Amino acid sequence: MRKFILxxxxxxAVLSCSSVTKVVKKDIxxxxxxxxxxxxxxxxxxxxxxxxxxxxxxxxxRDEKVTIVDVAMVYKGSVTVQxx
Length: 84
Fold this sequence. Notes:
The structure is a single chain. The strands form two sheets. Strands 1-4-5 form a three-stranded antiparallel β-sheet. A two-stranded antiparallel sheet has the order 2-3. The protein has helices spanning 2-17, 30-40; strands spanning 44-46, 51-52, 59-60, 65-72, 78-83. Strand 2 (51-52) and strand 3 (59-60) form a beta hairpin. By secondary structure, it is of the alpha+beta class.
């Protein structure tokens, strides 16, 4: 009986310590992706800051008219643009 009580106490302690208290969402759900793409894709916009390409594309200066080609659906987000 004593072993049973010790096991029960240990199980309760383990379960109470492993409960999830915060969930971080890293991706946008599919339904929200479709809404974001419908709103922004193929839209002409003006840059508000200088945009630096992550590859060899150089940079796009501020106040340049561009077209939004794609929107990345990740936690921090990114936008693919095309100059006009």
